[in-house]
Give the backbone structure.
Amino acid sequence: MDHPDYGRAAVRPLKRLVEDDFLRRPGVVGVDIGEKVVGGEPTGRLAIVVYVREKGAAGRHTIPPDVLGVPTDVVQDTFAPHHTLASPQGGSGAERHSRVLGGIGVGPSRSVRFVPPDVPRADDYLVAGTLGALVRARGTHRPMALTAFHVACVDDAWEVGDPMVHPSRVDGGHPVRDRIATLARAALSSRVDAAALLLHARHTSPEVVGLGPVLGAADARVGAPVRKRGRTTGITAGVVASTDAVIRLDYGAGIGVRTLHDQIRVETPGFGDHGDSGAVLLDEENHVVGLYCAGSPHRSFANPVGPVLDQLDVYLLTPGGLGSRTLGRGA
């Protein structure tokens, strides 16, 4: 019997109907909408994609072959938050910028205690990620900057006022002399993994290194090209594959496992890596569409920018002042 072909708008409610049930099954780490692949070849049909740590642990015997006529596709992968860790003796001496702008490395001044299984051995670790873009708190004129929650806050011992440094201490930054900001706001919710840093540096610029000025915010669109500049991978380019991803991430260090909904997926190997969390995704018009947070060697994920700005209660800064937002959900 022939099965009907469903569009993304038709698959979305069916995927939402089953995603919580699927995520409770052993080994499942994500649920999304994507093209079904059979024998390594794309079929041209949309499917409910179920990501599992190992196909043998949660394969076809636990995931049904279809949901009300929409096929499922089980894909093996594992996702992790993309900050990077180093021991206090592991400073590498990364690039240093005289201005604060998007795409540069950043991290807390403090070290954080990690223990197995989050790390191979118990130790005090330094944390690094990326400062994504400049923002301004709504109702004030004080400049701030975006990064990821798990870069700025890291564990459950974070406090407003925690100092942030550039370069990060992982990259040889000094815990006092290189302070550029303090933690002002943070959000770890069902859609957002983000923080806002209150900037102390005088020289700032509302642009991303190598990518130019930030010109506003927009919603991600499936099939649209995006670029980012991260601390680790530098400038990379990819294509938005989905705006419907649901992923489970283990933050460890007192935070535990959290589920992020409606995430942007970029299906481009090498688009991001550990240390890139906090970078912004820019579309072809240099509008911010997302805040990079996690991934694997095969695919990357970002928070949609709208909820990030709303939950932190901030506006993007642009060369002309405040960035406008282009509304409309990705197809």
Residues 327-331 have pLDDT under 50 and may be disordered. The first helix runs from residue 8 to 23. The first strand starts at residue 28 and ends at 38. The helical segments are 8-23, 149-152, 305-312.
